[in-house]
Amino acid sequence: MEADAVRRRLHPEGVVSYTIDGRIDYTKAANGAGSDRIFEKISGIVALGGTSVTLQGDVTPAHRIAWFDVLFRNIKQRFPALWLHSLSASEILAIATQSGLTVQDTIARLRDAGLDSIPGNDAGILDDSVQRKGKADDWISVHRTAHALGMQTTATMTFGSGETIEHRVTHLENVRKLQEETGGFTSFTPWTFTPQSSALSGFEEATAVEYLKTLAISRMYLDSIENVQSNLETQGLKVLQVALRFGGNDVGSVQLAEGANAATEEQVRQVIRDAGFKPVQRDALYRTMFLN
After folding, report:
1. What are 101-120's pLDDT values in tens digits?
2. Where are the beta strands (DSSP E) in 125-168?
3. Lowest CB count within 10 Å: 76, 168, 268, 272, which one?
4. 276: which residues sit within 8 A by CB, 6+ positions away?
């Protein structure tokens, strides 16, 4: 299939990558809990072989730029090799507003404090008829600004929440245009909306077939983005294995998968082998491969 051909053209070495990392909610740390708990959780992630951490949460009035500045510097002092892939576009916008700064100054200060890259997992569907008016432009603006400052980011699409095919195409086109302009996206991950994890109701979860079709279309349309992720966290091992022939060259984080989709590192590696690929551990932005 064409999507598999694009994957093979971009990744002729025949490997599929995964990462070991962790996600930490910082919300309570600024409201009396302190940062020690964050440091403890990072220590646990590193002990498991983790190379990066995603810090995300709810930005409250206590979460101004000075708080993140101190936190990130302390993390880098304690864990100098750790990659901070943290704060979504919406969080950065909230920090900028509460701190009275521009988005550019906010990202620059966070970068100088230790922020290495920005996840794009709050993109949803980049179409104003689906999200609140202006949110798509806000998301694009934050990532464009980060790219201009030399910071790489990732992109996602959450589909299956009532949007149309045309909305998904608009989303892919927005991501493609920004990538052609800046080259700053290291990966793209399409994942399915899960009604049980949201306050929204009345939607049927996307089927595995719809997921595989969307993954394949993403791989073909976004050929300027080197990596497209077949997501373990939302799909589980069975669909994941098939997805590696629908354009995916990466399976995401072993540590972030939970519940029915939880899997050990060796289970993930075996699924990759069974699909005919060599499993390799990578860092947060696909730049370091650990052949183990």
Report:
1. 999 999 999 999 999 999 99
2. 153-159
3. 76
4. 14
- Rounded Cα distance between 206 and 153, Å, is 26
pLDDT given at position 291:
59
Reported as half-sphere exposure (CB side, CA atoms, 13 A), residue 158 has a value of 15
Is the CA virtual torsion 32, 36, 42, 44 positive or negative?
negative
Quick one: which of 229, 224, 220, 221 has its CA closest to 192?
A: 229
Superfamily of domain 2-290: Aldolase class I (3.20.20.70)
3-state secondary structure of 16: strand
Task: Measure the CA–CA gap between 275 and 264, rounded to whole angstroms.
Answer: 17
Beta bridge partners of 282: 289
Residue 75 CB neighbour total at 10 angstroms: 22
Cα(140)–Cα(263) distance, integer angstroms: 33
- Cβ contact 64:94 at 8 Å: no
- The DSSP symbol for 229 reads B
User: Between the CA of residue 59 and those of 16, 157, 262, what are the distances in Å?
Assistant: 35, 23, 29
Quick one: which H or E segment has residue 3? helix 2-10
DSSP H helices, 200-276, are 208-221, 232-243, 265-274
CA-to-CA distance for 41 and 48, rounded, in angstroms?
11
For the record, the structure tokens of 228 come out as 């497209």
Helix (H, G, I), strand (E, B) or coil at 155: strand
